[in-house]
């Protein structure tokens, strides 16, 4: 039930008062603010994970390729990636709120935004490849998408 609330909160935050994307990282204004942004981030990452999981199964040959799933999940991941900058831009590192984010995320935010752009591009590419119907390109397109996630995790997520 908590997970549903968190996802609902992230979606609600898109329309009810979250700041528009700005060029700078800001520190959480309060404990409550930090808790909210950690929840929003975790919700978006949960949705990203739910969309990449079947793609990984396809790339590993455990699930048959399904172009509709690749197109749909690629589109969702592209949309979710567009939200990441807003939710990652609030620095919660000194708030005391438990999070898997390394403090270096906020001191290297230009790099983080570059990784977000890579995710968006890889998700768009997956959709294009799926529409092409060329199965010989599916595994590579899925792999490129997964590597963008891994790149950010390697640099900015605690184990």
Automatic annotation (TrEMBL):
Keywords: Electron transport, Heme, Iron, Metal-binding, Signal, Transport. GO terms for biological process: electron transport chain. The keyword Electron transport applies. Heme c binds at residues 149, 152-153. This is Cytochrome c. GO terms for cellular component: periplasmic space. Residues 1-22 form the signal peptide. The keyword Mitochondrion does not apply. SUPFAM superfamilies: Cytochromes. One of its GO terms (molecular function) is heme binding.
